[in-house]
Amino acid sequence: MSNYIGHDDAWADWRRTMAGDRMHHGWILSGRKGVGKSAFAMAAARELVAEDGVPQPTGQHPDIRYLSHPPRNDTEARKRDDGKPFELARNIKVDQIRELQRRLNTRPTLGSRRAVIIDPADDMETSAANALLKSLEEPPAGTFFLLIAHRMGRLLPTIRSRCRILTFPRISDLDMDAILARESPQASAQERSAAIAAASGSPGAAIDFVELDLGKIHALMQQVADQGDPDFVLRGRLAGAIGARPSREKQLAAIELARAVVADKMHGIGQHQIPAMVETHGELVRLAGQAPTYNFDPGLLVMEIGTLLANLAASRTPANG
């Protein structure tokens, strides 16, 4: 069993269904990235395929198929095969689904059941999702699908309608801090606070953000949002804290951190501030959606984030003064 905070209800639902007369063949595991859905899927799949009297392997299981992003191209595939770091493609491809379906024409190896995990299913190409839909409509005997979804709205409605949903909630800030203290003991209280703010209830994301050293960035963003930045000094410091050549992961983390700063400022605001808050948050959502695929100039991106946050300070004074 995966030992993660927030999984108790999902386990109860899963095991209640397993104990019933009929196990549903399609499941969606929905929640933010980093809350442990992959670990749950693997542990649940092992429970599903295990049978009394049939020895189960401790390593890779022949009746559990795990599908995720492939290497980006042939060069990256060779790096993977050589045991070197390699880049992933942005999507799960239709060829992967079709190859999976060919394998599903055979019987399970050890028992009568097999599990297919697609991680994350919301990153399937449209053609791949349509191909998978055929298997969900007419699942091979003994085959069960566990579809991990970070953004369930991106799944086809026809896929959602054919699956049961297990929801994995965001983790409280208090529990997140305890997890970070255990998993990243080197992080200061300021670094943990920044990571928790940026991760929005995802322990896995928070641990990743600690490694990106967001503490100083968080403090500067809060300062810009509180005080404004009429002489661009704070935005200059923010650019220095993020670095001249930040990784894409750090750029994404900076956008998420700015969204968290805006969300925090929305508590107790006056009526006149709401339009500016909504507009700023909407622009940050737009940047977050573009950042995974756009090649932003890091300096311009930092300035745009800083300007959006500075506008919040300007919005604090009512127009009629």
UniProtKB/TrEMBL annotation:
Transmembrane segments: none annotated. Residues 51-82 are annotated as: Disordered. It comes from the Bacteria. GO terms for cellular component: DNA polymerase III complex. InterPro entries: AAA+_ATPase (IPR003593), DNA_Rep/Repair_Clamp_Loader (IPR050238), P-loop_NTPase (IPR027417). Residues 23-172 form the AAA+ ATPase domain. SMART domains: AAA (SM00382). It holds the Pfam family DNA_pol3_delta2. One of its GO terms (biological process) is DNA-templated DNA replication. Residues 62-82 have a biased composition (Basic and acidic residues). PANTHER family: DNA POLYMERASE III SUBUNIT DELTA, REPLICATION FACTOR C / DNA POLYMERASE III GAMMA-TAU SUBUNIT. This is AAA family ATPase. It comes from Aurantiacibacter rhizosphaerae.
